[in-house]
Amino acid sequence: MKKIITIIFVLVAAIVVAQEKLTTIEVEIQDIDNSNGQVLVGLYNSEELWLKKKYKGAVAKILEGKSIATFIDIPEGIYAISVFHDEDKDGKLKTNFLGIPSEDTGSSNNAPAMFGPPKWEDAKFEVKENTVKQIINL
Question: Which end of the chain is more exposed for a tag (fewer CB within 10 A), N or C?
Fold first, then answer.
């Protein structure tokens, strides 16, 4: 009897997992000035946490002015991406005395950063396919 209950539980769990669509987000960062350091990529899943707390993060190597990061098993939903060229590999975005970034930054949809950081509305995109690709220019 225990075996039958275990088999039923496993089948039900497999059906529940199969119904949740998971996808991959590929992020290609272009126009990187040099190969110093790394690119830090943040994936955000809500407007409230935008640029405050990442849903997932990645570190990407730079090769010939480009960098690629991949997020796998991402549920359907609305997301936004923020990236920066961490030239000194300290894991922190350098800013000048006015708070303006001194390391190159970018975001999904190439949302503009005018008079402050990019807005969620400009950077957000929907995930509902098998693979979503974002190309971000620094």
Answer: N
User: The tokens of 88 are what?
Assistant: 């000194």
In this structure, what token pair is assigned to residue 98?
A: 């006015």
Q: Which residue has the tokens 């098993």?
A: 73
CA distance 50 to 42: 10
Q: How far apart are CA 116 and CA 33, in angstroms?
A: 22
* Structure token pair of residue 68: 């690629």
Distances in Å between the alpha carbon of 118 and those of 73, 95, 107? Answer: 26, 16, 7
Asked if 125 and 92 touch (Cβ cutoff 8 Å), the reply is no
Residue range 55-82, pLDDT digits in tens: 999 999 999 999 999 999 999 999 999 9
Q: What is the dihedral of CA 58, 115, 124, 33, to 10 degrees?
A: -40
Whole-number pLDDT of residue 10 = 46
- 113: three-class secondary structure by DSSP: coil
Please provide the DSSP assignment of 62-82 as one string: EETTEEEEEEEEEESEEEEEE
